[in-house]
Structures are given as structure tokens and as C-alpha cells.
Specification:
heterodimer, A: about 375 residues, alpha+beta, 4-stranded antiparallel β-sheet, B: about 290 residues, alpha/beta, Elongation Factor Tu (Ef-tu), domain 3, 2 domains, 6-stranded antiparallel β-sheet, 6 helices, about 30% strand
Chain lengths: ~375, ~290
């Protein structure tokens, strides 16, 4: 999917009552439409076909180790921040079979699992999440060996992004320069407008595919007042970030402080549960698992998401390289904020705040960075 | 990372996670828990490699492990050679494969020993235990064009006389007059007349010009740290020392994350690193 950046096409307005047409067109075009929906008291990403499956009138309260849904006073469809899911569960599958081997007599053959192209339409992608997808693109597509399974899912993905109308309590995209305004990488981009009692969406196309879909939707041209309302929504979100992090020097800051006492401090709180790596939209590590039938004639290998917080992750004969929680937390945070720059030319953090919200003990990456910065030994 | 060695790689476009099928042609017991397998690729295409590179070997139904190549690159068409210590379920299963058994091969991966960098220089190889296996292709390469190099010293340490890997071959090399070979063991009985002590203690005894030497070190991590320190004490700069690192690996191509060491993916940027790059990383505990 190629996109040509933001604001490239003329913007239009779709009324709330007409938005179902977007889903209809995407489904007609053969996309598997996935988007936010309410389940188990959280907003998760799943298959959706009708607009009623969006979490209308819901929002979330997020803090370190805390996530609660609550009712909004209006019927906004995208009036919440990001939940525990990220789009990587569709593009970088949690479990992926790599191959099957079969033994027949003296002959063994390996059948390699062909990448299954899937045409996802991802609806409701936030600016931070677009950056996260771009980061995983660098990891999986830009290296010497591209991952064929990721590529098969990513190539034809149609992205409907949304400018955030509400910052979560743990959000810090402004600090990471990843939001809240969507700035490219989308096919269609929405801004939800509720001012003046008119529930409507400002919509713009960012690609040819997006323009084709937009042509099929009922709409009216956007007025300058609509544009102003959209700018106000984004400005309000940008000014209400729940967290902030000074990010311009964090790359070198952490490399200089690999033996800082703060790592001991955080290790006393960290449970090494791996929640932060599971909810992180950029964490990409995997392990492999072998399975075989009882007769030993068939076996297969699958890869599944893994976490640098486990002991197995760094195990070599004789023991784990990172046997302490201190070193495992340090690996995660320095990779995310520091060595990721050296490896992929970008930060591994997009400021979505998930790792803070879903940490059972509320460890806060922004607080940890600040603590190291304020007590850096000289 | 800091240098590039000649490194054959698997063809771009092939799915790097899918193994090729090989068959074990020969299985030789080296030590009580170490075997050398000679593998032929079933498709008949020999696997070209550079000294110091490794493959991911699959025992079907059990799993996969990163194993360095211990054979001669100039004889790649006579079989792919790996020397494996049985320490876990996968390496145990690999060492139980006998002639005719099927084995999965992915690779070769990584950046190996710079072979040509030492031409015109003295060569010092410091090996501990099974660390001699990934160094053997380098030894073959140096001996194959012996006149291109200066003095050649192989310093090898094993736990006991019974743990001396490739013993017959070491004895053959030692018959040559153009190599210096020192072997030491950590502990021994009365039937051992050689050196006793850590391999790093052999460094000051070896004859080489520290200002014109390339050193190659492989063994347990603590042995490499002390080995590098002994070489430095002897006057060899970090920029002339190469060490091979071991880390957990699941993919071999920098995608699974497991082998990270600071900014490096050991599978892709290593396993061989120049010591000026490696030393600051090894100085941080549990990095």
C-alpha cells in the first residue's frame, strides 16, 4: 500500500448516519474489516461489519496499572484512547506456522507454509499506531531478509486512521513526535466532530485506494468551519497528554547509564510478567516451537510472540545471560528507547502509554527515564 | 559491525526460516559428550561458508540449535561438518543422528573470522574447550596458505586430558615445524605430562610480534575475557583481536530479537566481533 501523505486530497464531510457506507464499501471490496469494539470491559480490535459494533458513547480512564471504561456524555464512536490490543496482532500474527515436515519411508519433505495474503482494512488506527506500523515495517520489510508472512498481511492493508479526540491518562505521543495528528501512512483519515450538536467526520484520502473508496461514499465538501473544528479537536488532545518524556537525548542518556542504581530500584517493582511487551505495538520478538505427532512422522515449527522478560529468552547452555529482573527490564527499556535507534534508525517507542497502563504494578517508562535523567552520576 | 569478512549468505528471496534437508553421512565421537557430524545436502548443492559462520540445525520433531561449522571451507563439497556437544534436548538429539538420518539445515549465518586480514601478520589463536570447533575452519584456511602468514600459534585449553578436542589432528599439526602449538588442561592425573593451568597463561609464552599480530579467541565467555586481557597485556591492540560470541538464537537473520547484545544482533552482526567493539559490551554485567 503506498500512501502519499496527509492533506493530499480535498477533505469532505461524512455525516454520522452515513458512516456505515464506509464499512459496506470496504467489505464489498473484499477487505476483512477490523476495528475497535467493546468486549470484556475493554476496547479491543476485532472483526466488525456494522457501525453499531464500534464502542459508541464509551471512553476509557487510564493510569499506571489501571484501565476502566466509562460512559461519555455524547455518542462519539472514537472517544477513547488505545486499549490493550494493537494492530500487530493482525500484521505480525501472535502464532505463525513456518513449515511442516513429513517423513514417508526413507524420504522427508519440508512443506513450507506459504504466506497467506490477507486484505485487512484496519479502521480506527491512531497516529501513534501508524508510527508503530511504520516501525514494524522497518523491522520486518527493510532488512536483508524480509518476513514473508508479515509482508503478505501488510502489503494490501487498507488503513483508515483517526485523529485522536481524547488523550489517555498515560499518553505521551506529543513527546515522541508521533501524534496526535495523523501525518501520513493512511488510505483514509477521519476526524470525529461533535461540535454544534452535529455528529460528523472530516475525511481525507491519502492514497489512490483511499480516493477510490472515498468516491463511493455519501459526502459533502468540508467548509473552513469544519476544518477549524478538526484543528481544535487535535489541539485539545495535544494539550491534554497524560504523560510526557524528554525524548531528544534519551538514546545517549540510557547508553551512558547502563549501571545506574535506578535499574535496581525498578527491578524491585517489576514482576517480569511481560505484559508491557505483549501490549507494545512495536515489540517484535518471537520464539519458535516444535510440535510432532506421536509416531514421529510429522512435525511442524511455529513461531510465537516472545518477551525479553522471560528467563528462556536469553538462555544459553549454562544459564540465562540476563538472569536478573534488573537486566531484563534494562534490556527492554534501552532497546525501546536507545539501541532501536542504532538498529532501525528510529525510536522503538511511540508514546501510546500501553506499557504504563497494563503494567500490573504501574511502572511508568516516562518516570523511569526522568528518574535516570535527574540523578545521572557525573 | 566494525569490519566485514567474506560471508556467504543464503539467497535473498528464499524463506530464511525454512530448513533444507540434509543427510548425516558420518558420525564420529570426539569426546564423551561431543560428536562430529558430516552432512550431505539432499539437493546436492554444497553449502559454501566462511570460517566462523554457523548454521541452524534441526532435529525434526525436537527443535533447532545454532551450531558453528567446524569443517574445511575448501572441501565444502565433501560434506558439511559440525561438531556438537550434547547439552540439551536439541543438541542431544542432533548428536544421536547417525548415517542416513535426516537433519534440517538453515544457513550459513553471520559474520565469521576475517581470514585475509591476518595475511602478512603473525596469527595467534586462543581456544577453550569446544571453542576450538568454530576456529578449526580458520586453522585450515591459514595452514592452506601458510606462506602468506607470519608466525602461527595455537593455544588450546581443555578441562582434562580426556577433553582435548580434535586431539589426533592437533598432534598432526604439532608435527609441522612452521606452527607453535601449546595445549594445557585445568586438571589432570599423573598420566599427563603437558601444561596444567588456564589457557590464558600460555599467551606470554607464545612467540609473536604483538604489533603485527591478529588474534582469534573462542571459548567460554569468561575465558575469552581473560584471553583478551592476556593478549592486551602482551601488547596486542583490541583492534587486532576477534572473539566469537554465543547467544540464544531462534532465527539467524536478526528478526527474533533473542541474540541482542547492545546494539548488535549477534546472529547477523556477529558471532565474530572485533574486540574494540565487544569489550565495552562485555564490561556491562548481563547486557
Amino acid at each position: 500500500m503506498t500512501t502519499d501523505g496527509a492533506g493530499s486530497g480535498p477533505t469532505a464531510i461524512i455525516e454520522r448516519r452515513d458512516l456505515q457506507a464506509l464499512f459496506d464499501v470496504l467489505l464489498q471490496r473484499g477487505y476483512r474489516v477490523v476495528g475497535p469494539t467493546r468486549r470484556d470491559e475493554a476496547i479491543v480490535y476485532d472483526d466488525i461489519a456494522v457501525i453499531d459494533q464500534l464502542p459508541a458513547g464509551w471512553t476509557d480512564e487510564q493510569e499506571g496499572g489501571r484501565y476502566r471504561l466509562k460512559r461519555r456524555e455524547d455518542a462519539a464512536l472514537f472517544g477513547y484512547a488505545v486499549g490493550p490490543h494493537s494492530w500487530k496482532k493482525f500484521l505480525h500474527a501472535p502464532i505463525q506456522q513456518l513449515w511442516r515436515a513429513r517423513r514417508e519411508g526413507d524420504k522427508t519433505t519440508v512443506e513450507h507454509e506459504p504466506p497467506r495474503p490477507e486484505r485487512f482494512a484496519l479502521v480506527g488506527v491512531r497516529a501513534c499506531e501508524l508510527h508503530a506500523i511504520a516501525i514494524q515495517d522497518k523491522v520486518f520489510l527493510n532488512g536483508e531478509h524480509a518476513d514473508p508472512h508479515y509482508r503478505a498481511r501488510r502489503n494490501d492493508a487498507f488503513i483508515v486512521s483517526v485523529n485522536c479526540g481524547k488523550a489517555g491518562g498515560t499518553c505521551f505521543c506529543v513527546s515522541m513526535n508521533t501524534g496526535p495528528k495523523v501525518a501520513g501512512g493512511f488510505d483514509l483519515n477521519l476526524t470525529e466532530l461533535l461540535d454544534g450538536g452535529q455528529h460528523r467526520f472530516l475525511i481525507e484520502a491519502g492514497s489512490d485506494a483511499g480516493r477510490e473508496v472515498l468516491d463511493q461514499l455519501p459526502k459533502r465538501p468540508a467548509t473552513s468551519q469544519d476544518a477549524k473544528a478538526a484543528d481544535a479537536v487535535i489541539a485539545a488532545t495535544a494539550s491534554s497528554m497524560g504523560r510526557s518524556m524528554k525524548s531528544d537525548d534519551v538514546h545517549q542518556l540510557l547508553l551512558r547509564n547502563l549501571d545506574h542504581v535506578r535499574w535496581n530500584n525498578v527491578a524491585e517493582r517489576c514482576l517480569a510478567c511481560s505484559n508491557c511487551t505483549m501490549v507494545c505495538p512495536t515489540c517484535f520478538c518471537t520464539s519458535v516451537e516444535e510440535a510432532s505427532d506421536l509416531t514421529g512422522t510429522e512435525s511442524s515449527r511455529s513461531r510465537r510472540w516472545d518477551s525479553c522478560f522471560t528467563m528462556d529468552y536469553s538462555y544459553v547452555h549454562g544459564g540465562s545471560v540476563r538472569s536478573t529482573t534488573r537486566s531484563r527490564y534494562r534490556q527492554w527499556m534501552t532497546h525501546k528507547l536507545s539501541t532501536w535507534h542504532d538498529q532501525f534508525g528510529t525510536s522503538g517507542c511511540v508514546g501510546c502509554g500501553r506499557c504504563i497502563t497494563w503494567c500490573p504494578v504501574g511502572i511508568d517508562i516516562t518516570e523511569e527515564v526522568a528518574a535516570i535523567r535527574s540523578s545521572e552520576p557525573h | 559491525m566494525a569490519y566485514t569478512a567474506e560471508a556467504p549468505a543464503i539467497a535473498a528471496g528464499d524463506d530464511p526460516m525454512v530448513p533444507r534437508i540434509g543427510r548425516v553421512r558420518r558420525r564420529v565421537r570426539e569426546l564423551s559428550d561431543v560428536w562430529t557430524l558430516t552432512v550431505e545436502m539432499e539437493d546436492g548443492r554444497p553449502l559454501a561458508f566462511a570460517p566462523g559462520q554457523f548454521n541452524m540445525l534441526t532435529a525434526f520433531g525436537v527443535g533447532e540449535a545454532a551450531i558453528s561449522i567446524s569443517g574445511d571451507r575448501d572441501r565444502a563439497d565433501s560434506g558439511l561438518i559440525h561438531t556438537i556437544r550434547a547439552v540439551g534436548p536439541v543438541s542431544g538429539a542432533l548428536t544421536r543422528l547417525g548415517p542416513g538420518d535426516v537433519i534440517g539445515v538453515r544457513g550459513p549465518f553471520g559474520v565469521g573470522w576475517p581470514v585475509d586480514a591476518a595475511k602478512g601478520s603473525d596469527v595467534v589463536i586462543v581456544a577453550g574447550g569446544l571453542g576450538l570447533a568454530p576456529l578449526r575452519p580458520l586453522i585450515y584456511a591459514v595452514l592452506a596458505s601458510r606462506k602468506d602468514y607470519g608466525r602461527f600459534a595455537l593455544l588450546f585449553g581443555a578441562r582434562t586430558p580426556a577433553d582435548i578436542l580434535f586431539r589426533r589432528e592437533i598432534e598432526q599439526w604439532r608435527r609441522r615445524l612452521d606452527v607453535e602449538i601449546q595445549v594445557t588442561v585445568d586438571t589432570s592425573g599423573e598420566d599427563w605430562y603437558g601444561n596444567v593451568g588456564v589457557v590464558t597463561a600460555l599467551v606470554p609464552q607464545a612467540s609473536f610480534d604483538p604489533q603485527n599480530t591478529i588474534a582469534y579467541v573462542c571459548g567460554p565467555e569468561v575465558m575469552m575475557r581473560f584471553g583478551a586481557a592476556a593478549l592486551r597485556d602482551a601488547g596486542v591492540p583490541d583492534t587486532a583481536m576477534y572473539l566469537s560470541m554465543e547467544r540464544n538464537m531462534k532465527c539467524g537473520v536478526g528478526l527474533c530479537g533473542h541474540c541482542q547484545l547492545g546494539t548488535a544482533f549477534v546472529c547477523r552482526d556477529g558471532p565474530v566481533f572485533r574486540n574494540d567493539v565487544l569489550r565495552p559490551l562485555m564490561a556491562v554485567k548481563e547486557l
